[in-house]
Amino acid sequence: MSVPDSSMLIILANELDTTVSELLGEPIAESTTDDLKILSEKLEVINLQLAKRSITKVKTIRWILISLCAVIVVIFIALASTNSFYLDWNYNDPELAVAGTILHGFEFLFVRLAPIVFWTSVVGIVVTYKKR
């Protein structure tokens, strides 16, 4: 019918080894261990998703680097097999002169830059295969 003073409720709860909310007849909230368990399960799912995304990204980078190495090797083989055929062209013809100059420029740059790109890609592939 009446409620004791708040200080009296605290003293009664301490003496009876219970909570004030139990003395007042209010429902007790579930323990926080269940909340922590649910939260930890959600965090675990998020961590697994992030790890999977990271692994997928590393695999994608690795396959791009492998493809780049393969393309470089194929172009080197193609250039070696053609043996600079454009050098025998008649450069008095303007169209052949432009095409030959473009081919020679490509070959010149490719032969100088491709080894650097190739070895950088090889290093990148090795780094992506290292265990973490």
Write a structural description.
This protein is mainly alpha-helical and 132 residues long. It has a domain of 79 residues. It contains four helices and no strands. Helix 3 packs antiparallel against helix 4. The model has no long low-confidence stretch (mean pLDDT 86).
Spell out the blueprint of helices and strands.
Layout: H1 6-15, H2 20-24, H3 32-82, H4 94-129
Helix pairs in contact: 3-4
What attributes does this structure have?
132 residues, mainly alpha, 4 helices, 0% strand
Q: Which shape, going by the Cα principal axes? A: rod-shaped
* Beta-strand content: under 5%
Number of helices: 4
Gyration radius, in Å: 37 Å
What does this entry show, briefly?
The chain is an all-alpha fold. The chain has 4 helices and no strands.
